[in-house]
Amino acid sequence: MAADVFGKVAVMFGGDSAEREVSLSSGTAVLNALLRQGVNAVAFDPAAQPLTDLLTQQIDRVLIMLHGRGGEDGSMQGALQLLNVPYTGSRVLGSALAMDKIHTKQVWQSLGLPTAKYEIADKRHFEAGSCGAIMDKLGNEVMVKPAREGSSIGMARVTSAKQLDIAIQNAFKYDNQVLLEEYIDGPEFTVSVIQGQALPSIRMSTPHTFYDYAAKYQDDTTEYFCPSGLSQDQEAQLAELATRAFDGISGSGWGRIDVMQDSQGQFYLLEANTVPGMTEKSLVPKAAKVAGLTFDELVMAILATSMEDEQVTVMAGA
């Protein structure tokens, strides 16, 4: 697809979420890729300028590289729709669902898709005395996750009721609702989905207690395996699970599904990401490379997802 078909593109990154620094790295890499491909692209930080500047600058479409709240939760998607500016990735519903780990799990459960056992801690009526019973119910090893944060911010892995209480109180700093999830002891995988197609899975290995923020963005000790070492049948099974999970929460365009595998080989869905990282350490570019896509080709494929609604309109009127 020729670069000029996209018109003037704003790469939206930065923002004011807890993931601002990661967004700045992702957005800079993506902007540079578009410029290398001859796209008329400019940087746009919604934390520094009003959205109405998109209209005064005559922006034709937006490539969203905002991570976390305000960019990945449906609010920016809704604002862009009101401005009638096409954008990349999932629409309002898919973005909002994927950002909320609790509602994502509830949707997946309703569809019969495999997820780990869980409980919900609500700041309004949480009682520390309930931690022992929660540990017993979830198998005495629990992952604590703020419901609406990404990049493993506020997460912890605990093995006692006392640790659980401390971790929940820390997670409450980021969100009023916290997901408490049975810890699955086994390898972690991620599957990127672009335009309805699953890319090769990646298996992550880290010496950290789990794949936390430092393991993702700061340390060089994390290992990535792609191909991931699964059999051909398992790879196909995981690809189907990931695409079903992404479709199930109304994800569209592009995204990533994170999965754990237990000792019996059973996969369990963890969460969905509708604006995954695009830094040099990020997972989607790693999978795309194995699939035969360069970083620049990947970015152009992501940009093309901004035309999905336009293509539907053309087809409907044909």
From TrEMBL:
NCBIfam families in UniProt: D_ala_D_alaTIGR, PRK01372.1
The keyword Manganese belongs to this UniProt entry's keyword annotation: yes
Phylogenetic classification of the source organism: Bacteria, Pseudomonadati, Pseudomonadota, Gammaproteobacteria, Alteromonadales
Cofactor binding comment, as recorded: Binds 2 magnesium or manganese ions per subunit.
An annotated GO BP: cell wall organization
Highest taxon, organism lineage: Bacteria
Residues the entry annotates as binding Mg(2+) 2: 271, 273
Family named by the database record: Belongs to the D-alanine--D-alanine ligase family.
Designated name of the protein: D-alanine--D-alanine ligase
Active site positions, chain numbering: 19, 151, 282
